[in-house]
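Table S2 (continued). Query chain:
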Amino acid sequence: MEIKRDFYLEQLIKRKGNGLIKIITGIRRCGKSYLLNTLFYNHLLEQGVTADHILRFAFDSADDLHLIGESLISMQKEKRGVDPEKFVEYIQSQVKDDDTYYLLLDEIQMLDCFEAVLNGYLRISNLDVFVTGSNAKLLSKDVATEFAGRGDEIRMYPLSFAEFMSVYQGDKYMGLSEYMLYGGIPLVVLREDAKDKIALLQNLFSEIYIRDIKIRNKVKNIGELEDLLNMLSSAIGSLTNFEKLRNTFRSIKKSKITAATIKKYLDYLEDSFLVEAAVRYDIKGKAYIETPKKFYFSDLGLRNARINFRQFEQTHSMENVIYNELRMRGYSVDVGIVPVAEKDADGNVKRKQLEVDFVCNLGSTRCYIQSAYALPDEAKRMQEIRPFRRIDDSFKKVVVTKDLVVPFYDDYGILTVSIYDFLLKPDLLEAI
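Corresponding output:
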């Protein structure tokens, strides 16, 4: 069964011929290779590009390596990457005229000196280069700097809920429950049996994600890293900082780990795209507050597998889903705070901070979003919109709820939508 990834395919199509190296990054197994080597390849053929002008090469393929006289076994024994001179010579032999050739390279990090090779291809006018990478430097958040500002990054996420529903057999209500439980890794979504899904998620975590982080960063105490992952898994959507995590390690694990080491481990997890941090933003003061932060998982199935599916709170899971959807749509997302001063029953002025779940920016546009799992009565609704009423600007303010509601604006100009409409109608916020 093929899962369409039109959102990302369109991004590749728009970038054809832009003179930059197109770099598809994202968490492993999110579908990068399939996007490039199947969906984009088929698009090029449909546009009339002949197969001999589409040069596909996967650096983890024994068959492809054989074409240039390389061997996966020899590389592993000698602890080296692919010989760049052999690869360059092969590509030169395939380029036979001045027409455009599309170079689709998978797992580019397995090529030694790949930065120099790719930068060299930028000087060849009839080569249009697209690459994917799953670890080492190409998995880094600052990947574009490896190519002296000439890299064009396409960030790919696991399946969105809309993509998930394109292959899910049930209704959207059951679909969202399963999506929040098992996530959107395509390999997992296509498994039918729940036990198979769980086994695959746990295997992916131990055999791919943890292993890659350990090897790439030369982590010696992998137990501490895994303990940190467990803590983050149990606290999605909660504010945390390095000192708080250090104290948890000391009290529960009797560990002497330092805050600096925790920060380093968090950087590793972010660089691997397993988690993302949302920084707090003072909406009135227009200033960022670096700590504490909130951490969200790029895939909820992986998060749930990390804690053996023992802790499933739909409130926090829904918040994580909304965060990922916003990031996939290209928004930068912060946690908003609104400082207020109010009098208590005794007439004393008390200062506090009201929280806005998400401050979302895309270019010159902004919107504020509250994730409210349920709005059973007016009191709960007023509690959710209270921070919005203290924000003195005209940007759109939205409450997203799991309740089945027809989108509506209240007397304060605040929009309320259901999570289903929000996830399945990407233009909804702009349309109404």
